[in-house]
């Protein structure tokens, strides 16, 4: 049986496949140019010249966080979505287009195996994306539904916020090169190491996409295909239903709970306890791309040491409660819990390193 199937696995890529891949890449490049690359170029110039990229999204120009309330929840949600809505829309569009334009057979042959090679490819593919964890999640979900290996899909998701080259540039000129080095080291560990180990926790039944689930997002090769535009609308609508409600509600909850997640800690508090609190809170909280930089800047100005700052440097961008809820729709709970625990644990280590070297 394997010998009979082997020739079909080596069939050359058809012109239709090449055309669909090119269309996807053109759309992705156009969207990223408008939403990410061009705006970040101007932001980098500003960071180099003025050593700032704006005020902290946690409290704005205020020195204290607002008490938990509906007003605090709504104000934060408005501020957050103003910053991310373009990238969020692009993430949903690209996540749905992945399921329509990119052929499953080609993706499975190229990236279907959980291996270090495919993990590396998934992580490196995230570099030009420069998305926050929530905006990258729909694309990672789309890749996994198209039979891309869990390791590659997770590496793409985690790599987008953690090894974002624009954020590293901002960080170097706003904070210092030491922060950048810490971010690169722990970002690489999470992107490539944690994603690979997390994928190994999945058994074969978890890693394989059920046929009925595949049929919902795309027809099989043996079935007559509906028009691409119709399949894209169905795919995007399904993704919106699965992603947006949890995204919206969790952002409201986190916005209201800011004062509880990031309490006004005294400078006399034990540094390790501060690092633990910030590592857990930062891993749950949701921020736009690069927003960890002004947040860290504001905490440093209030007298917090390098330990809590270095912990936030890793955990704030890596994951969030909304993005974990999104990923949970396509990955088993043990994988999601492992990723969250790993991010918090590495945030603790980063905080200890930061307390020593910063």
UniProtKB/TrEMBL annotation:
Pfam families: ArsP_1. Keywords: Cell membrane, Membrane, Transmembrane, Transmembrane helix. It is a multi-pass membrane protein. The chain crosses the membrane at residues 17-35, 83-102, 122-143, 155-175, 181-199, 239-262, 268-287, 299-323, 335-357. InterPro entries: DUF318. It is found in: Cell membrane. One of its GO terms (cellular component) is plasma membrane. PANTHER family: UPF0718 PROTEIN YRAQ. Belongs to the UPF0718 family. This is Permease.
């Amino acid at each position: 049986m394997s010998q009979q199937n082997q020739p079909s696995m080596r069939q050359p890529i058809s012109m239709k496949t090449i055309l669909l891949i090119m269309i996807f890449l053109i759309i992705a490049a156009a969207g990223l140019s408008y939403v990410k690359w061009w705006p970040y170029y101007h932001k980098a110039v500003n960071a180099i010249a003025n050593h700032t990229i704006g005020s902290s999204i946690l409290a704005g120009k205020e020195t204290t966080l607002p008490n938990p309330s509906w007003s605090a929840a709504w104000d934060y949600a408005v501020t957050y979505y103003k910053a991310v809505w373009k990238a969020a829309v692009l993430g949903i569009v690209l996540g749905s287009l992945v399921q329509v334009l990119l052929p499953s057979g080609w993706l499975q042959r190229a990236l279907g195996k959980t291996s270090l090679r495919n993990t590396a490819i998934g992580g490196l593919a995230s570099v030009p994306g420069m998305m926050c964890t929530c905006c990258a999640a729909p694309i990672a979900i789309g890749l996994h539904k198209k039979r891309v290996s869990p390791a590659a899909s997770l590496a793409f998701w985690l790599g987008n916020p953690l090894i974002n080259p624009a954020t590293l540039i901002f960080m170097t000129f706003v904070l210092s090169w030491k922060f950048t080095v810490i971010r690169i080291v722990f970002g690489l560990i999470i992107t490539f190491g944690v994603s690979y180990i997390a994928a190994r926790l999945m058994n074969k039944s978890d890693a394989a996409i059920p046929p009925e689930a595949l049929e919902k997002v795309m027809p099989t090769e043996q079935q007559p295909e509906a028009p691409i535009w119709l399949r894209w609308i169905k795919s995007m609508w399904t993704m919106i239903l699965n992603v947006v409600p949890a995204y919206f509600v969790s952002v409201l909850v986190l916005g209201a709970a800011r004062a509880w997640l990031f309490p006004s800690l005294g400078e006399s508090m034990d540094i390790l306890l501060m690092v633990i609190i910030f590592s857990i809170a930062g891993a749950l909280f949701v921020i736009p791309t690069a927003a960890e930089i002004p947040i860290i800047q504001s905490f440093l100005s209030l007298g917090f040491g390098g330990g809590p700052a270095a912990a936030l440097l890793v955990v704030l961008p890596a994951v969030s409660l909304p993005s974990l809820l999104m990923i949970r729709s396509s990955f088993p709970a043990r994988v999601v819990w492992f990723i969250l625990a790993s991010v918090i644990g590495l945030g603790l280590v980063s905080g200890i390193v930061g307390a020593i070297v910063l």
